[in-house]
Amino acid sequence: MGPAVWTTFHGRLKKVRWLFLALAFAVSCYTWMHNHKSRYIGPELVLPGSSCQEGNCVVVLRDSSSRRQASKGQCGTGSAECSIPIHGVSDEWSLTAWVRLENNLDDLLDTTAISFGPVSLKYAAPAVPYVALEAAWPEIRRTFKYKQGFRANCADLAIGSSQTASLNDALLKCAQLPGCTVITRNVQDHVTYFCQGAYSIEARDSAWDSAVMSESPPSKDYAGAVAVKSWSYLALTYESGLLLFYVNGVLHQRLDISLPAKYTRVDVGWSPRWFEGLFPGDVGNIRVWRRKLQPNEVAMSISSELPASDHVLNVTPSALWTAPVAIKSGWTSLASSNQPSNCAASVVVPFLDRTPVHQLRILASHLQQHAGNSCQVSVFLVACTRQDFDNAGFDGLGQAVVLQPSAKLQWDACIRYGFQQALTWDSEIPYIAVVAGSLLPLPGWLLGLVSDFQQHTGVSAVFSKTLFVNGTIKSFGSRFEQMYDDYLARQVVRPVEMYEGYPWNYGPTMKTVAVQAAGCSAWLMRSSGVTELLEDGGFSLGLGSYLACSDMALRLQQAGRAVLVSPLSSFIDTATRARQEDPAALQAFEQTWSYILKAQYVSALALNATATWVMHCGGFAGIEAFNLVQHLEGKLRLRAQIQRGWPFCEHPDVLQDMPLTFSERVYRLRRLSAYLPSDIVIHHKDYRQLAAWPWPPNNSSAYLIGRYSWDMDRIHRQWADQVKLELDEVWVPSNWHATSLQQQGIQVNKIFVVPESVDSHLYDPDIWDPLTLPRQRKLSFLTSFCMDDHAGWQAVLVAYLKAFRNHTDVSLYMHTATFPQRVYRRDLVYEAMHTFLHSSKDTYLQSVSLYQGHTNDAPHVHVFGQQLTQLELARIYSSVDVVVVPSRSEGWDAPYMKAMSLGKPLIASIWGGLAEYIQSDFAFLLNYTITPVHSLDDWVRGANWAQPSVDGLVTAFRTSYGSQNLCAMGQKARWKIVEDHDIEVVSNMILERLKTISESRKSESHNAKPLDMAKDPIPVDVHMCSLLPKASVRLSQVMPALKIAVLSTAPPRRCGIATFNSALVEYLQPLLPQGSSVEVFPLVWDTELPALGGTDPTQRRIRQENYNDYVSTARAINGEGFHAAILQHEFGIWGGADGSLIVCFAKMLEVPVVTVIHTLSDNLWDSHQYILQHLAASSKAVVVMSESSRNKLGAFHGIPSDNVIVLPHGAPVMSAVNPVAVKAMLNLTGRTVLMTNGLINPMKGIDLVLRALPAIVEEFPSVMYLIVGEPHPDCGKPCADYLEELVAAASDHRIADHIRFVTQFLDNGLLLQYVQAADIYVLPYKERITTNSGTLTMALAAGKAVVSTPFDHAALVLTGRGVLVDFDSPLSLQDGILGLLRDDSLRKKYQRAAREFSLGRDWRSVAGEYATLLANITASH
User: Which CDD domains match (predicted)?
Assistant: First the structure.
């Protein structure tokens, strides 16, 4: 063929190439739709007619032929799918098995390993084990949420499409198609798209209908995934409606269900869902038990520590090992190197609840059986609640003894009684232990305690390590730290858990350590030491389990004895309810130890300065700050200020799965009195927000430190000016940053290099299980970046594709972080990457498709389907071979540091700060070219960055591919982090610098510096009002009569503040001096319709967004002889951006201003922060409604307490009534009344009560639940829809006769009647930040027993006066309500406490305090 002919042919071939590719893709899609990992056996399907007009569609599938079931063989015959007949299993059982996936599941597959009756143990992509239940097995029901007139946006999540005759036909096909959870169907041409998910279903389009499956599998959960081609130990336990699912001994899933009584077989490797893919793996060593395994037994059965004598079967349907391999995430006991002598103990087990006998038997048995080799145990079960037991019920448990004191005892007295009885019973026993009744031991628990006791001298008590059922630490010792106590309304020193929520194998908890205190869970003492402790008064103060052991530890340490915590002894705590602190116990502990603890706290300080650390709630800077304060707390007087706290912080993806202690520490530091003058402020967040924190607004006399980092070769002028003019010094992470500042004229003596840090114990490769990532090949790379120009992701993608063209044994995993305000969209990520590749002049790159399933010669690339959390990323880092993030600009890189700490080598360009910690012995280094930044962004205009070399990247990829030293390089990387960048190393460096600052300030004066707020990008009217000068308060003639202006919402507007203000004005007017007057200036919506009749046409109003109304009203108040103004504040009722016009208005007034703050959020946006600060500064007095709110105003928002007054929320004056008579008036005779009242909205939590109600009415059929209130008028359709959902849920036949809706806004008289008729008042709020609740105040004033979630107001007033239950937990609500219904004495106790608390809080008394306040502030002018 000649050259010309070839050129012509080649051109034509290029033109038709895409046609062939499209045809091949269509054929492959058709083939995949019918065959992809699924084997269909033509079922006889039944699809009953179903209406989708009411929001839900139900698809019912049945296989009447049962042909697939009939084809299964018996296990052990070589069949890949088999069934095992079983007998004798009914209402209590457990199932355990070893399971291994051969391949990672793709995005679409959902498959079953084992089915047991209606319970299926399944896997979803990528390799997430979970439990699914079929409502009527083998009849399959699938519920779809119907969205008529909406089009779903599936993009790359689409599986395929076809024409369907009807919506029901489309739903049927989706229900049978593995991975399908969404359909979107064109009602005109009947084309239906089947999708594994949808990015949105918000586009209204009458030509389309959509539906979403309600029970889609938990795909894409990388934190819950297991490693492919590795065995995992899976366990199911069932008893009394509770199904628990464990993975490698750790609780993974909990379901409240109702199951049939008996099952006849276990199906292995398949599911009765005949249309589902076959299980791609192995199942071995199945055991079915006739009883529920306890959590510790599940963990022990992994390594055959648990005898298998009582299980039903033990079969091996596929080949398995002779001895199970070690599982990193499975709990293992640390064997003691020495066999201790005389390992014998009496164990005291206190029970203060009505505990089932079988639970006591389990604990007593386990304490004896699992004490350890040659260890002897005598168990003393101390029933301090006067529960009737029969010792005969404990026959066969060796030395178990039931002790019943003659009177009911509280916790401390119960322990003391148990000690005395144990010593009397056997005076020769060498040791005595205490084990809480909710604990269950792991093997060798006593052996470990005795071993540590005998290996250390001067020890009086050794505590065990306790774990939550989910495998994280509950207790490993406490230390005494400063905190704010809501009940005592002051700062105190209390014990706090140090490692709560960290992984069970977190490094610092894997060695025996001396501690200041520990929780009262499990501990061991010598018998002689117990005697001495009792003689010293131990366990005699009534402190309860929270503080009694802290008291014990302090007594022992005063006697020169040590207290240890041992990792050699572990217990699992099965308790599901958090403790409730007893106010009396708190006071007793304070009276006994406060002086000593405060002295110890002061003596432990390395410096006496007070430092405030202003930090982000999340992000890498927030994580670093959180970690650093962990090691600085207790060494200086430390405060933390976070504008938005957990769970509402700026970066929830960072903190949502971090250890509990991690976030609780900062919350505790937030609540300290940050308004105390701070000597040092460390500003560790956006430089523009520096002016938002000091007091008075925009000024600071503290020593200001900026903890800053940046990515370019310079910072812009505004930032540099702040460093020059406003900061005393700046901390930067590297010498590169320091040089940059020096080149911009910053004084050298202002600049200090403080490197970034990472917790090397948390990012430790030994504590994280690697997992198999989607389609993972021989060598895998990970890159994590923001989808912007800084990251250099284009260079990574191009270099990888070129380096490994025609390679099928490599994988590149890409995690793209997005800003929190953006919704993560993987389709947009793919689109951006394809757009970039197709714009290339390289024909190979143009031809590449990154979508899964497209066949070309490009190496494997996978974009993660969601923004991952930090702990998910830790597992993914552990699962790859090399990490690459060669960004164009990087001052310091968090992903690199975490990867290094996890022992991973890097591909890196060492420009900027990276050069100071990335070295060639653990990284493949890249060349780069310094180039100007071409951007319209003012932040980076004129700066330079480093463009990584694509050729260098290609070489680095190939070199790493051929390297035999990746593991050795990773070890060197980790060593670098541990030596130089661990949080403890860096925090010590910071502490030394703070010492130097503190010493220098003693001899220097420090003048206040103005801080410029104009650089903070907040709305212009917030700036305007903040910068407006405050009008001088004019002197008024002293006279008895007062003229008061009140600005608030008012009736007929229905909201809580209008109700509050009306009551205040009603009771305030008669209490003012004779001749006084109160005028209300209502705040109204600009378009608000007037009430029909009864409205004063001359009443002056302020239209919310009309600035002229504010000006004219201020002039009227200033010129018409008013003496003071009361402003009711809530951000949503005042005009301007975020309610900023209240600041302008307060500054216009020439009379003293009293601002009443109703909702004091923990989480303010920048503009809210400025508004609150400037409003407080413009007010003569600021009223809050609790001491806690006063503390919060200072601690969270930097506003001092000088002019802050605490005046409680008023309550109606209530006279004693006969509840029986009130019930008769309301047609509630003979009913036990539960009640929730208030404007209805989704955060009210009423749906949670409805879910708890079936169990309540089953035990107490007389219960009637009153839901009193109308949908919130400011909420609109969401609240109306929520009410409809409640009404629908209330139609459940189990509760329909036990619910009454009163959906109207009641006048006070009728509302009070309903409140007085209630026996229990229920407040199931989902909103955590509710500082004042008028309904709670009313319920307490009426003397009602209250069950509530712990929102701010409830947590403050119900401690010791009511029942606090968990947020978003119907089960916790159920337990709390049933506890009061079962215990009349407890209910009456809380009723008395409520009435006592409400004395002096009625509206008449509260209005009197307002009258006194007004008299005081007007007398001074």
Answer: GT4_mannosyltransferase-like
Omega within 30 of 0 (cis) for the link into 138: yes
- Name the residue with higher pLDDT: 811 or 1020: 811
Which range scores top for mean pLDDT: 879-883, 1029-1033, 1335-1339? 879-883
CB 1067 within 8 A of CB 1210: yes
Pairwise CA distance, residues 875 & 870, whole Å: 9
CB neighbour list of residue 491: distance below 8 Å, 6 or more residues apart: 482, 483, 484, 485, 672, 673
Strand partners, 371: none
Higher pLDDT: 163 or 322? It is 163
For residue 157 the two structure tokens come to 């999540």
pLDDT 10s digits, 211-235: 998 777 776 678 788 888 888 999 9
Query: What are the structure tokens assigned to 1336, written together?
Result: 């709670």
> Residue type at 582?
D
What whole-number distance in Å separates Cα of residue 1142 and Cα of residue 1130?
A: 10
Q: What string of DSSP letters covers 258-289?
A: ---S---EEEES--S-TTSPPP-EEEEEEEEE
**Is residue 126 reached through a cis peptide bond, with omega within 30 degrees of 0 on the bond before it?**
yes
Return the C-alpha torsion angle 314, 315, 321, 325, nearest 10: -40
pLDDT > 60? residue 854:
no
d(Cα 265, Cα 766) in Å, to the nearest integer? 40
- Which amino acid, residue 1307? D
Per-residue burial over 1221-1253, b = 16 or more CB atoms within 10 Å of its CB, e = otherwise: ebbeebebeebbbbbbbbbbbbbbbbbbbbbbb
Strand-pair category, 1232-1237 with 119-124: unpaired
Residue 332 has pLDDT above 90, yes or no: no
Structure-block tokens of residue 68 = 């697939």
Cβ neighbour number for residue 206 with a 10 Å cutoff: 11
**pLDDT bucket at 1061, cuts 50 / 70 / 90:** very high
Q: What is the per-residue pLDDT for 180?
A: 85
* Contact predicate 813/885, CB 8 Å: no
Residue listed under structure tokens 């400025």: 1170
Question: What value, to the nearest 5°, has the Cα angle with vertex 654 and ends 650 and 657?
Answer: 125
Closest by CA position to 1343, among listed 1400, 1406, 1392, 1405 = 1392
Q: Which residues contact 1092 (CB under 8 A, 6 or more apart)?
A: none
Cα angle: 1342, vertex 1344, 1348; to 5 degrees? 125
User: How far apart are the C-alpha atoms of 31 and 14, rounded to whole Å?
Assistant: 26
Q: Name the residue among 1321, 1325, 1329, 1331 with its Cα closest to residue 1353.
A: 1331
Coil, strand, or helix at residue 126?
Answer: coil
* Distance in angstroms (rounded) separating the CA atoms of residues 747 and 724: 8
Contacts of 1049 (CB under 8 A, 6+ apart): 1055, 1057, 1058, 1061, 1082, 1083, 1084, 1128, 1133
Write down the residue that tokens 């010598």 correspond to.
Answer: 526
CA distance 417 to 395: 23
Give the separation between CA 892 and CA 736, rounded to whole angstroms.
10
- CA distances to 112, 775, 942 from 276, in Å: 8, 21, 59
Q: CA-to-CA distance for 384 and 402, rounded, in angstroms?
A: 11
Q: What share of the chain is helix, strand, coil (3-state, %, to 5)?
A: 35, 25, 40
- Report how far residue 1321's alpha carbon sits from residue 1235's, in angstroms, rounded to the nearest whole number: 5
Question: What DSSP string describes 557-588?
Answer: HHTT-EEEEEEEEEEEE---S-----HHHHHH
Give the strands of the sheet with 729-732, arranged side by side.
637-642, 610-615, 680-684, 703-707, 729-732, 751-753
> What is the distance of C-alpha 314 from the center of its chain?
40
Q: What is the per-residue pLDDT for 285?
A: 84
Q: Can you tell me the distance from the alpha carbon of 466 to that of 570, in angstroms, rounded to the nearest whole number? A: 6
Mean pLDDT of all residues in 650-674: 71
